[in-house]
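Discrete fold record:
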Amino acid sequence: MTDQTTMTAGEERDYDEYRVIQDLGGWKRSHNCSQLSAANLGQEVTLMGWVQFRRDHGGLIFIDLRDREGLTQTVFSPEVAPEAHERAHAIRIEYVCALRGIVRSRPEGMANPNMPTGEIEVYVTDWKLLNTSETPPFPIEDRVDAAEMLRLKYRYLDLRRPRLARNFILRNKAAQSVRRYLDALGFLEIETPVLTKSTPEGARDFLVPSRMSQGMFYALPQSPQIFKQLLMVAGLDRYFQIVKCFRDEDLRADRQPEFTQIDIEMSFPDEEQVMGMAEGLIRTLFSETIGAALPAAFPRMTYRQAMDDYGVDKPDVRFELKLSDVKDIFAGGGFKVFANAPCLKAMRVPGGLELSRKEIDDYTEFVKIYGAQGLAWIKVKEDGEWQSPIVKFFSDEEKAKLAERLGMTPGDIVFFQAAPADVTNASLGNLRLKLGERFGLIDEKAFAPLWVTDFPLLEYDAEDKRWVAKHHPFTSPQPGQMDTIASDPGGALARAYDLVLNGSEIGGGSIRIHTPAAQKAMFQALGIAEAEAEEKFGFFIEALKFGAPPHGGIAFGLDRIIMILTGAKSIRDVIAFPKTQKATCLMTDAPNVVGKRQLRELGIQLREKAQENPSDDKKDEA
């Protein structure tokens, strides 16, 4: 803690009389703690906030007062206000105070150019103690090394830290920018239900038991997808909502069980209209929040090109490292691992010769996360000689073709992956990002938006042995491809589009199916039997029979956008009260057990294992 005053226990008791908590008594705050400058010199002001630092210099006592906007240095002087100065000996960090005083210039040479209020200080004439505070479990400052688990337990204290406070100030600016932009284009902000029906849309639903209909369950919405389409059937034409969504899935740095979408739908559009509206929204959002100018037109790339060149459908195009298909070079060759591989790709890394064997071994372990069995490599030494355990298996012709295909030069390293296409792409695509960071190829201050288009409509789930929707089952196939759904499910393309920024998917949408026949055909292709389709989606198909207009839209992940705007490393830093990676709240101890009476009212009986206290998770996460 940064409190430079030390006192004996006796001296502490002497000041207890000054720790009487007062009410505001009619005082009103005149400025926030980042607002004062030389323009306010000589003014009497009233500030309110928390004590960040306290420094007793023998005569003068300095208090840095903090609120969500910033800091102001205040001075207690025995010459200016003896009584206020005497009482100030009782102040400690995180006490809540109201200070009244006169704005003065700081002494010559004492200005702090790194603070908005660095030119001035406030000489206190009177003050009120509004509340005391126990010593916080960690310092309330940005340079804090406390474990995240401890900070999440005391999240209300963590949120006092200036960096986190700035995140939520910016998040508010972003939400207001979204509302102004969409309102100007005629969109209506409409709320949709939070308690809804469980439907098979991809992720696992969170279920809510019904007391009034025992044995029945609501589901929390994974998105308002069906409802926003119904709003288009209702003729409301243009809808948006900044909305909470819920998915019961495994978590990671950019995923939470409850998250926020900017949800948008419009009637009678084509892809160009939706994408144009969305580009304008993101350009406006970045300009109004952080003053960043994004391109007048966002570049586009097909899904196939993204997978071919980058191995992922959300490529970070701030750097040029690409993958190359080299299967044809080794087809029928003597190195059977390459010759028989279902997919073989290589990635040339200029300057990679400097990588140590330990680093290469670490990268080999890293790609195993994505199902790879290993990682082959070749180093090109300064004299042009190739160094690798696998080179001895290559013919001279294969070596010449590989060098020409990849443009290999001295100082390079080339990584290879020979595996099924999904493993090859995922392992090299994610290794590419680590190498981009390792070699400083990524401009962290740059913003590189990219549309990815022409997604497959369906993809095959090998585990369930069936076709599933690449986006969701309400996405329209591209014109003329409705018959392809039945004859060649893997060949049908969707009228879908994702907006990627710096390697993160920040938004995705599509033109929707708007006729009952087409929607039933899609359910058939997904292996959803007619009876199940009627049970789960009967109300929706019924609605499509009543003149549903062509419609489409997009949804943006607000949390991910705020992560990028603030430079946060975790989505937890831009959500006020987030969950841990095990979906627990350490502050409230949620989820937790409920009483037997509540369960009886719901008609629910739990198996013993399900009644274990999830707070045990904390031990694993410590």
Observations:
- The chain has 19 helices and 22 strands.
